[in-house]
Automatic annotation (TrEMBL):
Keywords: Dioxygenase, Oxidoreductase, Signal. It comes from Pseudoduganella flava. The keyword NADP does not apply. Gene3D superfamilies: Jelly Rolls. Residues 1-22 form the signal peptide. Residues 49-116 form the Cupin type-2 domain. This is Cupin domain-containing protein. The keyword Thylakoid does not apply. It comes from the Bacteria. InterPro entries: Cupin_2 (IPR013096), RmlC-like_jellyroll (IPR014710), RmlC_Cupin_sf (IPR011051). GO terms for molecular function: dioxygenase activity. CDD domains: cupin_BLL4011-like.
Length: 130
């Protein structure tokens, strides 16, 4: 597993336009790689995400599923229509396409995760939600 994460990270961040979702203060997204998958009109994007203590990602959606693995830190995942979910290093979450969600770092250190997105080609990776 420890060899797989750097590979996934390098593949997803090489060319994903992350400007569609403006970087929030305290949020850093780094494209590792992106590439075609076997599902027509879909691609996989891998990104490393860092969230500073007290920072939030901002409410947003993705044009496909998000699968994220928490490497360090702790926080809260806020998905519309669901109770807040506490997350910490060693845990993973799956967020269905189109679900409005946010994440908040509730710890004293930086929260780091690897996000894998299986999204529609040609769409922004993320879109801010109202």
């Amino acid at each position: 597993m420890r060899h797989l994460l750097p590979l996934l990270a390098s593949l997803a961040l090489t060319s994903v336009p992350l400007t569609a979702l403006a970087q929030q203060s305290g949020l850093k997204r780094t494209l590792v790689t992106r590439g075609d998958i076997s599902v027509p009109n879909r691609e996989a994007v891998v990104a490393q995400v860092e969230l500073a203590p007290g920072a939030t990602a901002g409410r947003h959606t993705h044009p496909g599923d998000e699968i994220s693995y928490f490497l360090e830190g702790e926080g809260e995942l806020l998905i519309d229509g669901e109770p807040p979910r506490k997350v910490k290093a060693g845990e993973a979450v799956i967020i269905p396409a189109g679900k409005v969600h946010d994440a908040r770092n509730t710890g004293s250190g930086t929260t780091k995760l690897i996000g894998v997105y299986v999204v529609e080609k040609g769409q922004p990776l993320a879109t801010p939600a109202k």
